[in-house]
Amino acid sequence: MFDFETVYLARHGQTEWNVEGRRQGRLDSPLTPTGLAQARRNAEDARAEPIDALFCSPMGRARTTAEVFAAALGLAAQVVEELAEVDHGRLSGLVRAQVEAGWPGFEQARARDKYFCRFPDGESYADADARAARALEAIAGSGARRPLLVSHEMIGRMLLKNLAGLSRTEALALSHPSDLVYKVRPDRREFVALSPATA
């Protein structure tokens, strides 16, 4: 059990590639105007919480989002490399049709074993699960008790798995819209949305 009172998990705001349906992974695309508005709303909701530290993924979309939180909370965003999104390897930047054309059957194979299936020259959820645990250990080691973490949907599922004691199946079934922040109580193994998603 990590020595946290509460952990807040935010996803970066909507990006141009989110709209286009492209896999981002370790590549990046800018936040859309909607994405910036989502970050501002989330940051406003977070101001009412007793957050004592702010950490973010090294990816540009997460850092841009974290800067919005930093301004609202009066905290400096600290980059944690282990919070980076799952590496999609050779599929990064591609839309579904391109994946199907270049790697026939991959999506079906991944659907059968989503946790262990690794992206070509990239990572699996199993890899990300271990990385999420390392990230949380490092953040706990900083002394933060109520940190807010700005990361991504896929690594975010593994952060929730570790914090709330979820099974692989439970974690993989979760979604994390860009317009909500999860509030996690590790001691109770529970999490709730800080405010309802609006889109």
Automatic annotation (TrEMBL):
Tell me which positions the record assigns to the signal sequence.
none
Source domain of life is: Bacteria
What SMART domains has UniProt attached to this entry? PGAM (SM00855)
User: What is the active site of this protein?
Assistant: H12, E85
Recorded GO terms, molecular function?
phosphatase activity
So where does substrate get bound?
R11, H12, G13, Q14, T15, E16, W17, N18, R61
Which cellular components does GO assign to this protein? Answer: cytoplasm
Alphabetized, the UniProt keywords read:
Glycolysis, Isomerase
Record's Pfam families? His_Phos_1
Q: Do the record's keywords include Isomerase? A: yes
PANTHER family in the cross-refs: BROAD-SPECIFICITY PHOSPHATASE YOR283W-RELATED, HISTIDINE PHOSPHATASE FAMILY PROTEIN-RELATED
Protein name according to UniProt: Histidine phosphatase family protein
Which organism is this protein's natural source? Actinospica durhamensis
